[in-house]
Design a protein that fits this description.
The protein is 78% helix and 0% strand. It is built from 19 helices and no strands.
Length: 449
């Protein structure tokens, strides 16, 4: 029975990774073809209009996340994930009909905005479900895969867009849309777990209790009374650097270093791989420290993961070099400055991997099962503000002063991030203990009844 339950949980998490990867890929398919799309709509290479489009997608995603996050704490989450997957897949597929003129831009703007609503439905629901499928001691590792799905989606979107760009940039959206519709079929066969969580799943298997608690409007006050929740939620600054870097990286590499998009993709892939490895490594480290009684270990790792990259990325982004025309991968990496840049960025983002699983695990640790979707949704709403500001700031600064200055805005934002984690480190243990105590009392009451 335990093996069947374990295998079912693994298959469910694998399905969620696929869906998260697909939905995250859509928002990363503009960057590799930024210049191509700009000329396609008649903007002559200017990026501000596409920065506005990307920001709008992000803001609507954030509003959608707030709505569906609260809904995920009240109703069956499986159907929210199914609806959201179908929604973003259909509107992504329809991009193939976008025409090369201003009207086409307006249509693309609309379709992207609708895809953002689908994105917002999926994220908090899957987050809440994964929280019920993994034990407390394994949350950093478990939510590392949640973060890895975002990285895989990022890589998938960049790869497909780079390959499709010279042929027709719209094909990348069509491909993801079709795969998304296929993935949606598998959600129908998914069995939703009890909100009581894996640590107490034996009680539901025996039929001893049914966890009937659902969020109420009055619970919002309890969520926002926790200081750690507040600081985790309002930390929108941590998404600004990523938004800037991902939006401008291809333009920056071409403009400042004469590196074409296809070679930049390999360069970026190496950096993303280091982030993925860091996410996994620090996920294991955080869980091992937690098992040894260091309840604030995940927060401490996240704090260090935000401090270490700052000097490394600053130096990496200002290193000057010019690659020869039509440079190959081999030729690029024998340029000492290019190699140093790659090493510094890889080390910085490896360290930053400590933030990913730790952030999600801490949100779950701090909140009751019926509050997690709402808490994550609120935090993601603020994150969406950061992600929307990133491309907006980066594109306007780039158009005004050049790509290097646009990219450097990411570092200025990054310097502020650690100050949001220090209050969490101070308050997380007593607030986590209070949540555990209340949850245990509820279990005892349900067992008696």
């Amino acid at each position: 029975m335990k093996n069947n339950s374990h295998n079912s949980s693994l298959l469910s998490i694998l399905l969620f990774i696929v869906i998260l990867s697909l939905v995250n890929s859509v928002q990363n398919m503009i960057s590799p073809n930024l210049e191509i799309i700009s000329y396609y709509f008649g903007f002559g290479g200017a990026t501000a209009q596409l920065g506005v489009l990307t920001s709008t997608f992000t803001i609507l995603s954030g509003i959608s996340i707030i709505f569906f996050g609260y809904l995920a704490d009240k109703i069956t989450r499986k159907w929210i994930v199914l609806s959201g997957t179908i929604f973003y897949s259909i509107f992504s597929s329809l991009t193939i009909f976008v025409s090369p003129d201003l009207n086409g831009y307006y249509l693309f703007f609309f379709l992207s905005s609708m895809s953002g609503i689908g994105f917002g439905a999926i994220i908090p629901s899957i987050f809440s479900l994964i929280g019920d499928l993994i034990s407390q001691e394994d949350r950093s590792k478990g939510f590392s895969f949640f973060s890895i799905a975002s990285l895989l989606g990022m890589a998938l979107g960049l790869i497909i867009a780079t390959i499709a760009g010279p042929i027709d940039w719209r094909f990348s959206f069509l491909i993801i849309g079709i795969i998304g519709l296929i993935a949606a079929l598998f959600i129908i066969f998914f069995n939703e777990p009890s909100r009581i969580g894996k640590d107490f799943s034996f009680l539901t298997e025996k039929g001893a209790i049914d966890y009937t608690y659902r969020i109420k409007k009055s619970d919002l006050k309890e969520i926002f009374k926790k200081k750690s929740n507040i600081w985790l939620i309002i930390n929108f600054v941590d998404t600004i650097p990523t938004g800037i870097i991902l939006f401008l990286i291809f333009y920056y590499m071409n403009d400042y270093h004469n590196v074409p998009e296809d070679i930049s993709l390999i360069f970026l892939g190496t950096i993303l791989l280091s982030t993925l490895i860091g996410t996994l490594v620090f996920g294991f480290v955080g869980d091992n420290l937690f098992k040894k009684g260091r309840k604030n270990a995940r927060v401490l790792l996240a704090l260090m993961g935000n401090i270490v990259p700052i000097p490394l990325l600053f130096i990496a982004l200002i290193i000057p070099f010019q690659a020869p025309n039509n440079v190959s991968v081999g030729e690029l990496f024998i340029i000492p400055e290019a190699l140093i840049m790659l090493i510094l960025m890889s080390l910085g983002l490896f360290a930053n991997g400590a933030v990913n699983g730790s952030w999600y695990a801490t949100v779950v640790d701090l909140n009751l099962p019926e509050h997690r979707g709402t808490t994550l949704a609120t935090a993601n709403f603020f994150d969406m503000i950061g992600r929307s500001l990133g491309p907006l700031i980066g594109s306007f600064v780039r158009d005004a002063f050049g790509s290097v200055y646009g990219m450097m805005m990411a570092i200025f934002a990054w310097i502020a991030i650690p100050f949001f984690w220090i209050p969490v480190l101070k308050n997380v243990i007593p607030e986590m203990n209070a949540t555990e105590k209340l949850f245990s009392e509820r279990i005892k009451e349900l067992e008696k009844s």
